[in-house]
Specification:
The structure is a single chain. The chain is mainly α. The chain has a single domain, classed as Dioxygenase LigAB, LigA subunit (Protocatechuate 4,5-dioxygenase, Chain A, Orthogonal Bundle), CATH 1.10.700.10. Helices cover 55% and strands 0% of the residues. The two termini are 32 Å apart.
């Protein structure tokens, strides 16, 4: 039986809940494997071969190869695990987050220093203003 999830209709937001966690389990475990230097070296030496060692869906593997982290999130990835891919590529979390929002690292940093993203557009669809 599916649980009522009133948070499912927040525009532009994927909530990492138990369902997403199950969907992305192997994707997130792959990401965590990148914490070990020897695994990062193996991944960098042959990304597809390393990914094929994990029972991820083909769609998850393609999203990793394309570094489409927004797609990875939709497929069950958690941004904190996915940041290990960026780290393997030599990117900072600000660079990763900026790329996911269509901003440069500098634009993302400035937005966060100014108080973060505007609340406009980040409400439940049925919520009254």
């Amino acid at each position: 039986m599916a649980l009522d999830k009133p948070y499912k209709d927040i525009p532009g937001t994927t909530i990492f809940d138990a369902e997403q966690s199950r969907k992305g389990y192997h994707l997130n475990q792959f990401c965590m494997s990148l914490m070990k230097p020897e695994n990062r070296a193996r991944f960098k030496a042959g990304e597809r071969a390393y990914l094929d060692e994990w029972p991820m869906t083909e769609e998850q593997k393609q999203a990793v190869l394309a570094r489409d982290l927004n797609r990875c999130i939709a497929l069950g990835g958690n941004v904190y695990f996915l940041s290990k891919i960026g780290g393997t590529d030599g990117k900072t979390f600000q660079q990763i987050a900026g790329s996911m929002t269509g901003m440069t690292e500098e634009q993302y940093r400035a937005m966060m220093l100014a108080g973060g993203r505007s609340i406009e557009g980040n409400r439940f669809i049925g919520e009254q203003k």
